[in-house]
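A further point concerns the way the authors explain their paired sequence and structure data. Each protein is reduced to its one-letter sequence and a matching series of backbone shape codes. An entry of this sort, consisting of the sequence and the corresponding backbone structure tokens, reads as follows:
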Amino acid sequence: MYSSKLNFVLQSIFVIFLISCATAKLSSDLKRCVAGDSKCIIKNINTVFGEKNQGDESFGLSQTEPFKMEDIIIKQDPANPVAIYLALKNPVVYGTKNIRARKVKGFGKTPDGRHELLLHAPYISMISDYEIDGKVLILPIKGQGKSNITLVEPLMKMIIDATSRIEDGKTYLNIKDLRVECKPKRLAMHFENLFNGDKALGENLNSFLNENWKEIYNEMKRPWYDAIGKQMKEGATKIFNTTPYDEIFEIL
């Protein structure tokens, strides 16, 4: 539910990361990294987020701060503690310009093995129109209007298990498995116009959601991670299937 905005964040991080490393699309202030050079890869990622968040036509990068997403629809099993229908419409994400890579593992001379990317941001916020109906823990929830959902100091990790694929004499990275994890320091949320604008009920429920954010997050994170990982794998596979590994990284 509330962490579905990470769908954009994590998928975009990975796509931007690949674009920033691809030699044919590099701008003058980015360079292709030697395979396994984590410092270079981290520098490119941080340059893209910190300095190119308004886009860069020279290597095909669109604006990422703020970022407009597609609508998100989530339906949970009525038997779950968090059992909701949630539609987030016209969502816009803020805070991506402050995302920074902290650690990179893998991406060595061959694509084989495990690759990891660890990133951090002060906050990631999504503003959207919403519609919600169902129950959260012990309380019913219903409403539609504007929502603000914010991850405070999220630590985001992507794990890729890969093998090599040879095609026309060129080596490509073949993704076997891709999964994501996220540990926020706190989850803050506010839904306007709950229960047809009943101010007292709305304020009480917003307070309840924020007080119990850990329980809500723990109930929802697995389906979030699975959905995010699936979409990330689809996007990353398209890139890796069309770009040989030695065009993404310099192999010494």
User: Anything to note?
Assistant: The helical segments are 6-21, 38-51, 199-211, 213-242, 245-248. Residues 1-8 have pLDDT under 50 and may be disordered.
